[in-house]
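Form P-L/3: holo structure prediction, ligand magnesium ion.
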Amino acid sequence: MEIREVILCKYGEIILKGANRQTFESSLVKELRRRASPFGIFKIYYLQSTLYIEPKNDECDMDGMYETAKKVFGIVAVNRAAVCEKSMEAIVATARAYLPAKLAGKKTFKVDAKRSDKRFPLTSPQICQEIGGVVLSTVRGIKVDVHNPEVTVGVEVRDEYAFIRAGQEAGAGGLPPRSAGRGLLLLSGGIDSPVAGCMMAKRGLEIEALHFESFPYTSERAREKVMTLAQEMTEFCSRIHVHVISLTHVQEELRDRCEEDYFTILLRIFMMKLAERVAAEYKCDCLVTGESLGQVASQTLKAIRVTDSVVDLPVFRPCIGMDKSEIVIEARKYGTFDTSILPFEDCCTVFTPRHPKTQPRMEAVQEELRKVDFEGLLDEAYATMQTETKLVYPEYR
Ligand code: ATP
Ligand code: MG
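OUTPUT (holo model):
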């Protein structure tokens, strides 16, 4: 018997109620279509709170499509299902053909049946019983466990077809891509900022990235590392424009003219001011950083207060209350950890003061800033900006 398989994705229904619903649904469809191209030709649409991904021919790479669907924010669960006609005979025959291979080696299961078409002649409990019988008679050694099953077999009778699946997996969760506006991520080569970017993308933020380098104090390879990180982030964040600004002259001026202890905080002020300019040019309504309270000298409350006060935009710091070990777990989940720990220098580690001020006062900071041509240096740094675009599957577009 020939089985037609599709991928079904569920989105969080509660958050999608109201006027935004359609926009959210179509942005999920758009995102899936964008990601589908390397895996073949699919028909992708939504119906009754479910996204359908139907392969149009046998050449489609269903595994690849399935894996990429799991990385789309806004989708809470993903499964593969066999499609069949809406009759109990067809459902039973399909279950017989489809389920044994999917359930081989499993110890316990239960069946969960849903009818969105209430005219279907059997009730949900009756469907469960029939399909439960099919599984028990075709899968060796499997038992029913309604409380804690290893796999839940799902049968859904919908408007046009019935769907049968064995298990489902969690999706990436969060809100649909680009549903929350655009933010500018200050992206270093470290562990924290890529995680911060992915966390905000999860809440629907479109991520634009800004990296500061300090060539020749930082190397070409350090920049390549950041580009690799941005590329890895696209798996979850989709397209990312990465802007790179050189802070070389700023750092030399700070080194030559200012108190060493203030160096870190002054550099951060330059970063924030430049980020604000980039945000204005690229229409970003917030900044995002990977700061975590107290992690280093520039991340004490007083230091954060100073850096926050120089910009008008909201600054989101999703890692602020996380321990390093928790951030590492996220970095592994988002696939950026291995690149983040490659040992290349960052501009923050160039000319680091021996005793950075952990409790900077704004007046003292301003006095230091007066020792350099603040606006002139900002203009000069801004003019060094270069931009690269990273795509989920660069080879296909
Ligand atoms: P990360 O692991 O993200 O590098 P960190 O623990 O090294 O963070 P800092 O170096 O103090 O902390 O940087 C704090 C935040 O400032 C980073 O998370 C990032 O958002 C931003 N930042 C630091 N260096 C750079 C850089 N070279 N370019 C762009 N943003 C940077
Ligand atoms: Mg860093």
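COMMENT: The mean pLDDT is 94.
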